[in-house]
Amino acid sequence: MNGYLPTSAVRKAGITHAWVDLLKAFADPVRQRILALLQLPPAELSVGEICDILKLPQSTVSRHLKTLAEWQLVAIRPDGTAMMYRLGEASQQAAVKTLLDLATSAMHDDPAARHDAARLITIIRRREANKQRTFVTPAPEWEQIRAAWFGETFHIEAMVAGWNPAWVVGDLGTGTGLMLPILAPHVNKIIAVEIAEDMLLATQQRVHAEGLTNVEVRRGSLDHLPIEDASLDVALVQLVLVHVADPLLALRQAARALKPNGVLIVVDLQPHEEKFFMQKMGHRCLGFTPEQIRQWLTEAGFSQTRWHGLPARHWRAPETDIRIPDLFVVRAVRTAKILPNPTV
Description:
Elements: H1 7-27, H2 29-38, E1 45-46, H3 47-54, H4 58-70, E2 74-79, E3 82-87, H5 94-106, H6 111-135, H7 139-150, H8 154-160, E4 168-172, H9 180-183, E5 189-194, H10 197-210, E6 215-219, E7 232-238, H11 247-257, E8 258-269, H12 276-279, H13 290-300, E9 302-309, E10 327-334
Parallel strand pairs: 4-5, 4-7, 5-6, 7-8
Antiparallel strand pairs: 1-3, 2-3, 8-10, 9-10
């Protein structure tokens, strides 16, 4: 009959004395109330929740839980910074189940037990309300929490994971190489092209620091790409065309470097009136219309053009109070016909 008794207790006091001590553990009214609670759904409660239900200080509740835990009548599970309590292994023994049934039956008409059960319902409702507040109500806070927990780019990395691992990608006008650590784990090779010396140096440092062994950094411009004909599966041109004197020539160069049926992705500015970008940022124009982009892509040798305006943000730069222009993204496919290398 000692299968449910802790071995240490049996060695110390013998089976008979250990059994008497176990009966003493059951004999306390507070411990009976705790055991009765843990037999009700959700069958697991924290110390704080038990204190709220029993209306007792934590020191008192913790002392009784310690006694019950010593006899394996309750088990403990860490949950973050909280400790959750449920019925322990000893509660599965036939003799202990009989004791639990007797205690529960004796407390059936006890006013304290009825109040405990009513307050347990309140605790369950509070749990559900907390879940709603955490995951539904504070949407702006959730975006901040998500970024703090998982980073600013995890969703982009998840999407890129669907790319073909055999692809060769050109990041044309890579800047400081911000996209390279995101793309590199998911493709065969990246050729990063940049003309500005300071940007080129920053890209090389990033590639070295991140250990991006499949990234090759090349100095060059979009209107004279240092990339062999028909060698790219995907070409990315992000916030670069506005800096180029001849966007059509740049798109023709991208078409030359792409394999037949290779994909071009362009992200750039929609038309705007903020001359600051030409005066201070080195832009050659005030954005592009969908008609301009489609015409240039057709002339450059692309088809299946898809233009999408990114949602308007109406943001203003705090340091200058200028309105930040809206963006667009274009996807186009290089035609299967091999184009002649344009004169540059």
